[in-house]
Amino acid sequence: MDTLQSLLDTNFTNFHMPDIRGTDIVEILIIAFLVYHMLVWMRNTRIWSLMKGIVVIVIFIIIAALFNMNTILWIVQNVLSIAVIAVVVVLQPELRRALEQLGRKNFLSGIFPFDISGGEGRFSDRTIDEIARACVEMAKVRTGALIVIEQEHSLAEYEQTGIEVDAIVTSQLLINIFEHNTPLHDGAVIVRGNRITAATCYLPLSDNMNIGKELGTRHRAGVGVSEVTDSLTIIVSEETGKISVAYGGVLDRSLDSEKLKDRLRKIQNKTEEEHKHRPVFRGRAKAE
């Protein structure tokens, strides 16, 4: 009896439940939050397929360890460091996109609410009407179009891939740009504020597996740029004549004129509210 009691005391001493502090609960929640969002992010990238392959390799290594396959374990041990570097190189586009999305979260905006731009760049109601009118007219005759509207995230790197335009947004100009067999019809148009800054711009293609196979490169480019920036992209399908909008990596299809204007007004009002409630930091004021 004494032996049994001693054994139980030893087990309870070695396997007792540790004291849980408030910081431990917060730490668990943070880790769970990060793991969840990492899995959601990986689910729509090539990493998901890569993870399946890694799981198979890990199972194989475990089997090799159980049966003392020393040669295989030696090879794994020496190849592991090279494999990590290879994975980083292969997944460089996905890792870059993840860091860009993290940078767009604006975690510091609540701590340092300064706006260097001073509220410039918000487009007017007239620009909304002109863009919607152009998209509807192009949809009627099935003229393909790709229009990217810049917000807080700069699109300068994509402008450099195209041809500078720098003109006021009008429906006639947009229609002329995307007209078949014209020098500027191939590629995307970038709109900043009330001006068309560049045309024939190249955009990053999305590798989201959930995008329908019936959608072509134009739609995939529209979704791709919305994944890595906070821009709103309007796509007019050349095959179906339907108008779609990509925002935040999500594609909304078959929009009419009013729905398109509503989507444009949402980001217009969002930008306006952000500048209205955000203190403006312009540096040192000039002496009068």
Automatic annotation (TrEMBL):
<keyword id="KW-0067">ATP-binding</keyword>
<dbReference type="InterPro" id="IPR003390">
    <property type="entry name" value="DNA_integrity_scan_DisA_N"/>
</dbReference>
<keyword id="KW-0548">Nucleotidyltransferase</keyword>
<dbReference type="Pfam" id="PF19293">
    <property type="entry name" value="CdaA_N"/>
</dbReference>
<keyword id="KW-1003">Cell membrane</keyword>
<comment type="function">
    <text>Catalyzes the condensation of 2 ATP molecules into cyclic di-AMP (c-di-AMP), a second messenger used to regulate differing processes in different bacteria.</text>
</comment>
<dbReference type="Pfam" id="PF02457">
    <property type="entry name" value="DAC"/>
</dbReference>
<dbReference type="GO" id="GO:0005524">
    <property type="term" value="F:ATP binding"/>
</dbReference>
<dbReference type="InterPro" id="IPR050338">
    <property type="entry name" value="DisA"/>
</dbReference>
<feature type="compositionally biased region" description="Basic residues">
    <location>
        <begin position="277"/>
        <end position="288"/>
    </location>
</feature>
<feature type="transmembrane region" description="Helical">
    <location>
        <begin position="47"/>
        <end position="66"/>
    </location>
</feature>
<dbReference type="GO" id="GO:0106408">
    <property type="term" value="F:diadenylate cyclase activity"/>
</dbReference>
<keyword id="KW-0808">Transferase</keyword>
<dbReference type="InterPro" id="IPR036888">
    <property type="entry name" value="DNA_integrity_DisA_N_sf"/>
</dbReference>
<dbReference type="InterPro" id="IPR014046">
    <property type="entry name" value="C-di-AMP_synthase"/>
</dbReference>
<feature type="domain" description="DAC">
    <location>
        <begin position="92"/>
        <end position="257"/>
    </location>
</feature>
<comment type="subunit">
    <text>Probably a homodimer.</text>
</comment>
<feature type="region of interest" description="Disordered">
    <location>
        <begin position="266"/>
        <end position="288"/>
    </location>
</feature>
<protein>
    <recommendedName>
        <fullName>Diadenylate cyclase</fullName>
        <ecNumber>2.7.7.85</ecNumber>
    </recommendedName>
</protein>
<keyword id="KW-1133">Transmembrane helix</keyword>
<dbReference type="GO" id="GO:0006171">
    <property type="term" value="P:cAMP biosynthetic process"/>
</dbReference>
<keyword id="KW-0547">Nucleotide-binding</keyword>
<dbReference type="InterPro" id="IPR045585">
    <property type="entry name" value="CdaA_N"/>
</dbReference>
<comment type="similarity">
    <text>Belongs to the adenylate cyclase family. DacA/CdaA subfamily.</text>
</comment>
<keyword id="KW-0812">Transmembrane</keyword>
<feature type="transmembrane region" description="Helical">
    <location>
        <begin position="20"/>
        <end position="40"/>
    </location>
</feature>
<keyword id="KW-0472">Membrane</keyword>
<dbReference type="InterPro" id="IPR034701">
    <property type="entry name" value="CdaA"/>
</dbReference>
<dbReference type="GO" id="GO:0004016">
    <property type="term" value="F:adenylate cyclase activity"/>
</dbReference>
